[in-house]
Structure formats: structure tokens, C-alpha cells
UniProtKB/TrEMBL annotation:
Subcellular location: Cell membrane
GO cellular component: plasma membrane
InterPro entries: KCNMA1_auxiliary (IPR051432), Leu-rich_rpt (IPR001611), LRR_dom_sf (IPR032675)
Primary localisation category: membrane
Keywords on record: Cell membrane, Disulfide bond, Ion channel, Ion transport, Membrane, Signal, Transmembrane, Transmembrane helix, Transport
Topology within the bilayer: Single-pass membrane protein
Designated name of the protein: Uncharacterized protein
Native source species: Dreissena polymorpha
Length: 210
């Protein structure tokens, strides 16, 4: 390799790094969390596993944050009051939080939320008649894997969520999927906290046009 070629590679590498500069700083209640600012004006607040934080306390400090990672904090049930101040978030990760119930109005003011992670909680998402209408209509990505799977489980009805195109779920046997708009479907079962009870996939994906 010539000297000229080596010089070009070094310059390209340096330029690429400069385009992806990140700033990391303490943030949130009493600077308990960590924020990462990327040059593309994306700010992620990481409050994962802080334990003693309340969700309502975190949301007071959201400001220009676009993504909130708040798993493993045992928040319990969710209401709109708990999330006051978080309405402009684009991504929310609520995995491992012992969430068993979400009030119908919890996300009614979330106009920009594209990703919601509700995995590994206690939500009855696979029970017959589970109401998914509380989910924001603008969701693109939803994760519900790792929630309890009862006897006679049913796949949740997500027909009214026109923008949803990526779903991570547990595999539920003897259940028909009606997910005509989904472009990416992940059926978990590789982790200890998730299940995959699929026995036969015959005809399950006839409605998937993409």
C-alpha cells in the first residue's frame, strides 16, 4: 500500500470520528442518570437500574431528551401523572419494571413516541380481550416479549395501529396473527425471561404483505 493510500485512510477515519462525537454528562434527579448527546441532536437519558428513582421525578428533568432508558426500576403501574413532562420523547424503554397495569390515558399526549419497550413486565398482553387502545397511534416499534403467557393465550389486537411496523413478541401457539402492516416481526424465546411456544407456523403469516 502506498504512502498516499495510507494518508487517505487515516484522514477518512479521523473525519468519520469527528462526525460522531458524543458528549456524556450526569443528568436527571440529583445527577443520578447519565445523558449522552450526539451531534444529530439526539439526547439519550440512561436511568437504567437506579432503583430509588420515581418516574415522575425523572420526567421533570426530560427537557430536550429524545430517548429515555428507564428499565429495572420497579416503577409498577403507569398513569399519565407519572409521565407528566415526558410527552415529547421519541423512545421509551420500560423493560423489567413490574408493570401490571397502564391507565388508558397514560400516553394520550405522546405525539412523537415511535418506540415503546414494555418487555419483561407483568402486563396481560396475551390474555383475551386485552385492550391495546392506550398505545400511541404513532408507534413504529413495540416490544412486549417477556410478559406472562396464560393458558388459552391470544395474540394482542393491534389492528388500529397503522404506523406499527416492527414488533417483538413472545411466540404464542395456536394463535392467528393479523399483522398486515408489520415489516419486522421478532418472536422471542432465546432468553430465560421470554417464551416461544410455537409448534406450527402453518398459515400464520398469510397477511404479511411486506
Amino acid at each position: 500500500m502506498s504512502i498516499l493510500q495510507i494518508t487517505l485512510i487515516v484522514c477518512m477515519f479521523a473525519t468519520d470520528r469527528s462526525l460522531n462525537v458524543m458528549t456524556v454528562y450526569p443528568c436527571g434527579p440529583n445527577d443520578t442518570c447519565t445523558c449522552t448527546y450526539e451531534k444529530q441532536e439526539r439526547i439519550t437519558m440512561d436511568c437504567e437500574g437506579r432503583g430509588n428513582l420515581k418516574l415522575s421525578e425523572i420526567c421533570v428533568f426530560i427537557e430536550n431528551v429524545t430517548s429515555l432508558k428507564a428499565g429495572r426500576n420497579n416503577f409498577g403501574n403507569l398513569t399519565a401523572l407519572h409521565l407528566k413532562g415526558c410527552e415529547n420523547l421519541i423512545e421509551i424503554y420500560f423493560n423489567f419494571n413490574q408493570i401490571a397495569h397502564i391507565e388508558p390515558t397514560t400516553f394520550q399526549d405522546f405525539r412523537h413516541l415511535h418506540l415503546l419497550d414494555l418487555s419483561r413486565n407483568l402486563l396481560q398482553v396475551y390474555s383475551k380481550g386485552w385492550d391495546a387502545s392506550f398505545l400511541p397511534k404513532n408507534l413504529h416499534t413495540l416490544k412486549i416479549n417477556g410478559n406472562p403467557i396464560p393458558d388459552n393465550a391470544n395474540f394482542p389486537n393491534l389492528d388500529s395501529h397503522d404506523n406499527l411496523n416492527k414488533l417483538t413478541s413472545d411466540g404464542v401457539s395456536n394463535t392467528a396473527f393479523n399483522l398486515s402492516r408489520i415489516a419486522s416481526l421478532s418472536l422471542s424465546g432465546l432468553n430465560l425471561e421470554t417464551q416461544c411456544y410455537l409448534i406450527n407456523l402453518k398459515g400464520s403469516f398469510h397477511a404479511l404483505v411486506n
